[in-house]
């Protein structure tokens, strides 16, 4: 009420001001030229009988529109000898910044004197239309990509066993049968996950158990950090090396958000003269479309590009007129976005004899740390340091984007220890484009340079150079050449050149040729050619031939992979290598509980056979389920009904077992994963509240995805009147003193929730009557879908009509 009264008073004042202006003032003088925005300015037509503009300012209250949109505000302006004026307070009420419009110490300015502002004044309607230049307007921000929603994640307590069992029966008198199994044993809940891997030799020589890695891990998807305690592999940069430790590591973990783009993404600015639709194309492929009002806009997070490319923004108005703007871009996924940091710190005992001993660790600890930081869109700096008894190492590097000409990277590291001081320098350059790519890198280390790996018996290469060039003259064709040089301590430098060419000859047909030459040994060379193509029935075929070190070779193969939903797959191969011929055949069966495989090989010395089984056992929610091998996250579907199809992201993954459960093995941690059941496969007497759910499991954990199903005791009851005729359609029916329904065709009454003993009260024109019936036992009078068919039953009159 207060706002309406204020506006009414404002309009009244405006009318008084209009009357005063009509009596004493003349029209506004026409503005010369255009505003800073480049738009022509219209003025109110002058009345031939109006007197000249008075010297004293006149106060006006005008309805205001801004950039073509009504603000709903009635604002104060003044009219003087030089035209309309506005004060800073009025601009603030309209949501504008006076400082951005050039206001200094003065409180009021002529509209004509404000740069970037144009207007039109309608004296008869007492309205003013203001328009700002694009440079003064806040651009509309559009997100060119929508990342998946990420939550804290959930985990149901449980444990699992991933296994890969291999068994080879005895193949001859001198051979011995063997059996072994790789495994991962994992326990998980809301506090994290404990994982242990190893291999056990079940039968044959060297029967024993060998542990590989054991660790506890925890992750925070919001802060993108993770903590790992136990066996781990340290983080490294392109110019440093990783190390196995038994200890603790704290690090930034962008793997928790696979949808997150960590490199600098392009921004593309544009402007629409009128409300339009806007579309973004990257290298000719549409990436985004939306609608925008008139004015400036900015497209953020332009992805789908690695290297040089071109982005085109197309705006189209309601009349179909198009404006296309192309912008060259260069994106390198190795750079970090401005302000983004990536780090890792680890402390522990170096692991020794991995794969040979279950517990082999150094006596003295080691410390290592790495850091990367995005300074701006074109610069990412790096640092690495490590130390242990007898050796210390530290270095720094940077990646610099050279506009659209590629990325230059370099690093310098120094070490000190018992063998003296050493240096390692790395310099490289990379340019990527759809047609041409070039990758150059050279690393040189002095004889005394050392790192933690050196102390564990793995020396640093003194020379490590790489040159790779790739050229794609047309779609489906690629030519690449590379030269690699490396030198280990105490050895000569090895140089190997290679050439590769590939071409698509048709739909599903590819031809490839590869050749290499050791520049230090003339006889060490080879060349191979291969042809691969697709056959009906999802069958793949390949044929290849070549020569290596003077020996000819050839191979031919056929294969068909098992369907994602399950089924059989097979593989046949025959080849000759180094004068020896061999052949093999393999058949696999993929089911919801894992995969079984049979392999038969003939290597010239005899025929051997091997059996292989991969899968998982999951204990959760009071049940133990077989499943395919489980990855980073999974879900146990609990529907309570057997043989119901389960869908993962709209693809059938399997059917529930006899207990109504199915394990879905490969989900994205912390993201909203879509799981659903096919309700059309449910019995007619079953009802489900929701057919799909969204779950976000924690890393290395599982979640129970329950579907609330309830059995409906439905019945179709045919009711006749006293004369044996069906009751009239629409007759009201009261079911068991509560829920109401009506009579359908042929006197049929549908009862949704029937009890053991039931009473129907029908309010017919002739009076009230009742029907009593007992719900039949299972298999007695029920249809195949669980619907009980009852009647016809005679409706008996109720004394007193109740």
Shape: extended
What value does the Rg take, in angstroms? 39 Å
Question: Total strand count, please?
Answer: 55
Helix share, percent:
under 10%
Whole-Å distance between the termini?
55 Å
| Number of helical segments with 4 or more residues | 3
Q: Classify the oligomer.
A: single chain
What would the CATH topology of the domain at 148-220 and 585-711 be? Immunoglobulin-like
- Outline the biggest β-sheet: 24 strands, antiparallel, barrel
Low-confidence stretches: 1-10, 12-53
Structural class by helix and strand composition: mainly beta
CATH class of the domain at 148-220 and 585-711: Mainly Beta
CATH architectural category of the domain at 148-220 and 585-711:
Sandwich
CATH homolog superfamily of the domain at 148-220 and 585-711 = Outer membrane usher protein FimD, plug domain
User: Percent of residues in beta strands?
Assistant: over 45%
Mean pLDDT, rounded to whole units? 84
